[in-house]
Amino acid sequence: MHVAILGCGQLARMMALAGIPMGMSFSFLSENNEDTAPVTGLGNIIAVEDYSTADALFKAAGEPDVVTVEREQCSLEPLTKLAEHCSVHPNPTAIYHCQNRRREKQLLIDCEVSHTPFVSVGAAEDLQTAVTELGFPMVLKHTEQGYDGKAQWRLYNDEDVKKFIKNAHFEPQSDGAVPYVAEPFMKFDREVSFIAARARNGEVRFYPATENVHDNGILLHSVSPAPNLSQALTELGQSSIQRILEKLDYVGVLAMECFVTKDELWVNELAPRVHNSGHWTMHCGVASQFQNHMRAIAGWPLGATQLKGAAGMLNLLGVELNQMSQLKDNAALDWYNKSVRPGRKLGHLVITDDTSEAVQARVLSLKDQVYDT
What we know:
It is built from eleven helices and 18 strands. By secondary structure, it is of the alpha+beta class.
């Protein structure tokens, strides 16, 4: 089984490292001169722009049996080209819906999934409408740009609105979609993600819900199962993500990020891929999110997703590799082979314990050690 992955970052790396022990081989498709260091040595790396036809791209990629992606912000053109020759999972339509925040909102509406309120903003007058409907403070998000909190603007008053309008680019996106969506600042207790894998035959398996803590829009650490999440909210999250998977005829792993209060859940974003908040699965249970994604797209049986006890993950953001400190506290280290830059995701640590509360305490202690706080 030969797999081509569009993208060459750490998610592609971890998918390949999960697939190789199962007998898979890999090639990687790079776009826009991206950094390919994370996948160096794991398979051939080719630049998509070097191949103008579907036949040429398919042959250069090693005539893969299936193609997948490591990110939603990618060009759909190479995927549609390769779909003429082999399977592409998740399908390009699913990625299309998830790579634009406005289309993603419509998908949630169509699936009758509770989501954060929003107003589409394609002109200055739309922003005034958003102020009337949503009030202050609000957050304005570009529909196609940005990740980890980028391309987002917080507006607290009319003066902020005027400043934003002065510098805004209201040109429609490639398909005529509005360039921004406005949302209120949600009053939530915590952020939780649901990760599920769907096989080609429609079988769906769920990982335990994961509670996430962010720093400046970037995931810092996670704990699973999410402490004290009610059974009702767990079932609501699972049924919501299952409806999305079935609506899209999705194959592979999908992540759903949510805002949670005591008895309510709002979906904030979808990720049509393996997800940072599921990295703890690499060292817990039978099949990690990476292995189950590869199993699903290959048409193989899915693996068990149960977690014995609890697990936590700490992202290593902008820190040097230091096994002497990072491997303390019985932590498992995964390094991405990337050059160090401030705030960059360079690796992660995973720890396990009997309960979510014990894991949470150890993650916080480990964070203080790693970041010297």
